[in-house]
Amino acid sequence: MSLTVPVILGSVRRDRLGIRAARFLIAQLDARGHAAPLVDPAELKLPLLDRMYKEYPAGTAPETLERLAALYRRADAFLVVTAEYNHNVPPALSNTLDHFLEEYYWRPSAICCYSAGPFGGVRAAMPLRAMLSELGMPSIPSLLPIPRLQTAVGEDGALNEPRLESSAGRFLDELTWYAEALGERRRHGTPY
């Protein structure tokens, strides 16, 4: 079954490493036959949240938000790639996520976290997990932490650490399972 899994990147920094992890995961999802469009806040250039998508009268939201809303409604799951800023979620990621709500409902999410150091961004994953659940897209139990991303994955998304291939495989197997299970339930209706 082909799925649509937007890969939401969390960093807008000039020399960001996260794009490497996003490229790697997009390639892995593509190899499985899934659509994995990149949602890049550096390209979106969303303003700081003033009005959520749902707060615009129908047909008046900025084009960028309309495109994202359409993508999110087609999505079967979400894969979030986050750095760790001061033990927390990058502000660009929070801002990108906060523009929507109902579009996420009843779809699973998965967290790939990374850092330049040995912990792989796991301290950011914990508050992000709570945030994703509150947004209506609970995260799967597994994480994909990537420590020392600058050496683990090349700029083009190619792996330099073979161990990541099996970890990513299991991680994406789990996300696929949850996406298919929740997709089946959505086809039969949702609580509201």
Write the layout of secondary structure elements.
Elements: E1 7-9, H1 18-31, E2 38-39, H2 41-44, H3 63-74, E3 78-82, H4 91-98, E4 109-114, H5 122-134, E5 139-146, H6 149-152, H7 163-187
Parallel strand pairs: 1-2, 1-3, 3-4, 4-5
Tell me which CATH architecture applies here: 3-Layer(aba) Sandwich
Arrangement of strands in the largest sheet: 2-1-3-4-5
Shape designation: globular
SSE string: EHEHHEHEHEHH
Number of strands: 5
CATH superfamily: Flavodoxin domain
CATH class: Alpha Beta
What would you say this structure looks like, in words?
The chain has 192 residues and is an alpha/beta fold. Helix content is 42%, strand content 12%. It has a single domain (7-187), classed as Flavodoxin domain (Rossmann fold, 3-Layer(aba) Sandwich). It has helices at residues 18-31, 41-44, 63-74, 91-98, 122-134, 149-152, 163-187; strands spanning 7-9, 38-39, 78-82, 109-114, 139-146. A five-stranded parallel beta sheet has the order 2-1-3-4-5, with helices on both faces. The chain is globular, with a radius of gyration of 16 Å.
